[in-house]
Amino acid sequence: MEQRTTIDKSFKSEPYQINMGPQHPATHGVLNLLLTIDGEIIQKVEPDLGYIHRSIEKMCERDSYQQIVHLTDRMDYLSSNINNEAVCLVVENALELEVPERVKVIRTIIGELTRISSHCLWWGIMGMDVGALTTFFYGFRDRELINDIFEETCGARLTMNYNVPGGLMLDIHPNFIKRVKKFIVHFKTKIPEYDKLLTENIIFQKRTKGIGILTKEDAISFGASGPVARASGYSCDVRKYHPYSALDKVTFNEALRTEGDTFARYKVRIQELWESLSIVEQLIDNIPEGEHRVKTNAVIKLPKGEYYQKVETARGELGVYVISTGTKSPYRLKFRSPGFSNLSLLSHIAKGGKIGDLVAIMATIDLVIPDIDR
Amino acid sequence: MNIPLNITKTIHDWLFSIMPEGAASIVEMFIIALVYLGIFTVIGLFLVFLERRVSAWFQLRIGPNRVGYQGILQSLADALKLLSKELTGTVKADKFLYNLAPYFVIISALMALAVIPFTKEFHAFDINIGIFFLIAISSIGVIGILLGGWSSNNKFALIGAMRSGVQTISYELSIGLSLLTMILITGSLQLSEIVEVQKNGWLIVQGHIPAIIAFMIFMISGTAETNRAPFDMAEAESELGAGFHTEYSGMKFAYFFLAEFINMFIIAAIAATVFFGAWLSPFGITESLPWLGIFWFLGKTLSLVFLMMWFRWTFPRLRVDQLLTLEWKYLLPINLVNIIIMALIVWLNLTITF
Question: Does residue A4 carry a pLDDT above 70?
């Protein structure tokens, strides 16, 4: 008791905690990070999820397969079309339904355009997180053109709902090919501009090179995928290893780097912009004629069994795992979202860095919170 | 023809003719203070507007263009909005310091404005230690930032304030030393005399290489001193929310905001005075029309302000340790060597004069 009442009057330094989020400019959504900081140096990052949980997987157990497609839009809203495609593919594979070539090609084109638009937005946010506010508007300028193309064809700009099991909801708009070609020409002049504005900037390079290094072993053990894993030298592009839709007809390079730091993750995404553009370029002139949809039953019932399909979204590997008991709704549907695995490694690579580093690392992990919190 | 001098002289004579000398001086001081308060507000609001338009221009936007001609009254409307807003505060804040902090910031900015030589006559306070006074006064502002961050009882604000303190203390050195480099040529700290010397060519020309280095160092550290991007550690919005003024609202926030822009103007004005000859026209082309000096002065200052805006809207932000590395490992040693070079140049009479 005596000892307790004596107050140690000497100043001691001790780590303290701050809540980054749920409302914070750098968390891009409602993610709460509980940081343990010693001065400016981060000792621990604890992500706290659940602020935007909508129990999408549970809702899927209630809905028909056509309705499930709509829910997937709201997961990773920046690659909504690719999410739709994943569910459609799993249903089509289960039904052993052969979709027309035209559908496959259009799905791939729109998927790659979605990837470009997602990376454009990411690039803008990346610049903003390291303090260059102007990049945001440049990224949005080019993203807007893609959104306009989508709006014309699908009627929506962000949550497109363009895919249905068995094909596409509508055929492409007559202007589609013309506008996409125009966009390709436009965007080829803009990626070098991105490099000039941000990539080559010495401050930006100093902020990102050698920061937040993720080794290949760690990338594999954390289950990282997409650009985050590929920047660490882990070749894991689903489009390469398990090509779906028309991706087996195109040639493209998997963007790979070995450094594993923030700058490598940045460069991988910039390279992916070029690769996606080349995929679109290869396909846009070769859209086969034909039906845009095959007839399916109004009520789709998958045969009893388990089905899995993975696709490469803009953030990494999205897996859809369906257990069907032969009814109109799945017995259980599980999404393996790329964001969740990629978030799990944040604490590992941000440790020992400064607050500014954490923000840069978070930007290159490219978190979309509704994708993590389904 | 000398409009500002005539007006001030008329008012001065009239005041001294209608009341005793002491009272007249006091009244005159109040009038000057009011005029400067007006200038302060107009410059602040104009720069806020300018920054919004310039940033819009860089960012493929239009910017505010509805209120008044081309949106010129937008910042006035914003100021009125901020005036009418509720002043919120944190419960456990140190109320006295919390309320005091914005005044430190704004008063230091206002006091620094007094010694800025707009023209030869339009110069409220021409003391013989002008430059020294400017540096001293402009560093008082950081006390306000530190107090604001400390008393807000908010960790983000505290981190921002501490960053700002570290940053300002470091970059003060560079500002002082780069100005000292130029003082070697002028041999005087008085701003009017510094300008007088430049009738034989602006100091950036007179001092050629070391002067250009000093100018670059001054602009870098001046940007850091005003807490603007790429050195906006104190309010790095993607890291700290709003930094030291997170907990301020309404007019108190506006004080911080306005002071930032006035400080930017002051840094640009010092640079224009010390390096580019303040109100002097290039090669004395308008020497017969001294009242044009104000336009030359504002033109030079606003060009430098534009340069600082260009920095802000192009560069990413440095990290806090890189910021200190830049100052202590690069700028400071370069500066010290630069002073020696300048001293040699002045000693050997190698300055370029016309």
Answer: no
